[in-house]
Amino acid sequence: MRLCLSLTFAAIVLAACGSRHPPAPIVDGAGLVAPAVEAAVKACRGSNIAMPGWRRPKHGVLCFNGQIFAHHDEDLRRIAADGDRLVVVTSQGGDNTAALGVAEHLADRGYTIVVDRYCLSACANFWFLAAREKIVLRDSIVAWHGTFTRSR
Question: What is the pTM of this model?
């Protein structure tokens, strides 16, 4: 089976996403967030947010922080549970192939993605688009760029 995927996105200039800035408030663009989402974001922010990679601070919630590396696809499949449906992300992007594997998992299970601060590059290209529902917290950003071609 041959799969070709080619994505091209306009570059977006991004400023002020450094870690020296405080986390965004837990509200979406309209000023509202469901209590379950607010609890999930607080759990992710409180579960050693400085540690990169996947965490599962409570049932139903997965958190991802940092750059996407090749092992993160496998890490997600190991840590995820049947009841997980919400993933809170802060990511500058990274490995496209791993991101695509995670995106397939998110799409297959109908996850909702919550962007807390930023979801860039491979995070936006694959994870954000694969999620069934998308929530971008106020003062957070989703940004696409680049081209990715994969054949198998």
Answer: 0.77
